[in-house]
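input
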Amino acid sequence: MRPPSSFDSEFLLMRDIKASHLILGLTAFFSLFLFQYKLLNLGNNFSPRSFFAFATLAAILLVLAISTVRRRQLVWTREHLALFLGPLLGIALQVWLGMRPVGIEPVIYLVIAFLLAGVIMGYLQVDIPRRHWTRIMFVMGFGLVVQTCLGLFHWTLLDIPALHFALPQKFATFYGGFFQKNHFATFNATMTLWLGWALSGGLPMARLARIVLILASGLLAFTVFLTGSKMGVLGFTGGAFLLAFVYCKRRRSTPLRRMFMGWALTVGGAYILAELVAPVDSADYAFSGDSYQNRLMMWHISWLAFLEAPVFGHGLGSFPAVYNEMFPRFAPAFSYVIEDNTADPHNLVMWLLVEAGISGTVLFLAPLLAIGVRALRVRPQNWFLVAVLFPLILHTQLEYPHKGSGSHYLLMLLVFGSLVGQRMHNLRHPLRVLHLPDHPSRFLPVGFIAGLAAMILVVSVHAAIMANVFSQRHRAAMQMPLRDALALRLQQNDITHPLIGRFALRQSVFLFAIRALRDGEVVATASFLRPMFAAHVLSHMQGRKLWQIMVDMYLLERDWEAALVFANQVANYNPVASEALKQRIGEFRVADAGSEKFRDLLREYRRQIDAEFDTMDARN
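output
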């Protein structure tokens, strides 16, 4: 039936928010929790989490896009064109100027853009059943991912630790997902903000689900207790003030006294638990001055790199190489003493300026601004969606997928779909609409199982290919002379590739270190491994094992001074680990060279060699 001509917010939420939201939400929720246990551990800190979620949603989006085409229910709007026009024009300009994109990132940009465009053109035409439980699930599902929009705005434009007093460090689940210390608490803070906004009148359907806010508040207090994150408490407080502003702006009849009392109990209880009995304290890291100085250093070097090619940039995908080439040139002049081998300026606008220049930045941002302007012209009340939409699409089009979780792409569909739904609402001709049965008890489980099967298939193929490639390369390197193997390894693309470079380097450090022990070429360790890999080892977030390997190499060479120098360098990243390494150096230094302590160390590394070969054999 044709919807009424006058705009109705309840119509928007109950007719244009479609059942595919639930399918995507359930599967994304499932995958986001699964990859926390690292069931797919390729050795890369990002792979087991981000690829799991990305592959899940990519497979589902592809299935939905194909079904949309088969049903011939395509609706094309200018918003769809703007969705991927920016990346397309930016890449075309780079190629036209002779600056070929580096790696596969531009291809991934286009793949994501076309997938999203294909899905959005059809998924809005599936109605969500008017059932009480579906309304509650929608509020919870949207709350699960709406926290990303705040994190994207923070990550895109405001990633300065000094602002952490007002903004929790990472609302978005980029690296740690939901079960890492700060992320989990701040996720719940924004979850509550969304629920409060919905219950205050932002979502009419949410008025029937007030129990959700009560349950969420208890969960939030408990999770803040588990994480001990003061940033989570700050997120609660900021959310309370913002919610109060929304109440006053909308002038709802709900008593403000009841709302403020609920917030006070939640925030106060969480703060007391975090202060008195929480097992973890993250305030030292959150308010660290060192982090603030490091960010300023990254931005300064990135800005200088931009000034060297301000019009057209250095080329898409070139930021890591450009930054690491610029750092030794400019750092001494500004007394930057911390060696920073980074591939991330922690500011995506700066990233875009360095890679694409002013011309590429304009091409990327103009279509996004056009979307926001059009949304406001259609309905001025879209200010909230526009505030969410701009940083969301900006992030999706600029960031590499390995740094984005599935919630980013899901939120893209939810928010962008609402705007396109308004466009469809104003069309003169009725659309063919595929209505779900009144009882979706069969449809949703089938969709969920299909999405899960697609996820398992994609991830399994990816894991098999990666395992075979890496095992073959490492096995070939283990059979060559050490110096030749190192030279060959550094020439391979995966060492410098932004997606798998960290994994390749970490595996290479470990394999070549134990290879040096196995073949008696221990002396080669200091002359080859340290200058080539030490910087990466030092800066690796999960480098404790690698730090000990590097120190053990020096210990077996009896190079006590070099071991102490390395341990002192570790102090810049982890003082506790540095002290532990110094204690280990002292214990070996007082031991006799032929003592059992050294023989045990050699046996341990030989055991690791055998285990590594067994793993390779099993994969093959």
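quick obs: The chain has a mean pLDDT of 50.
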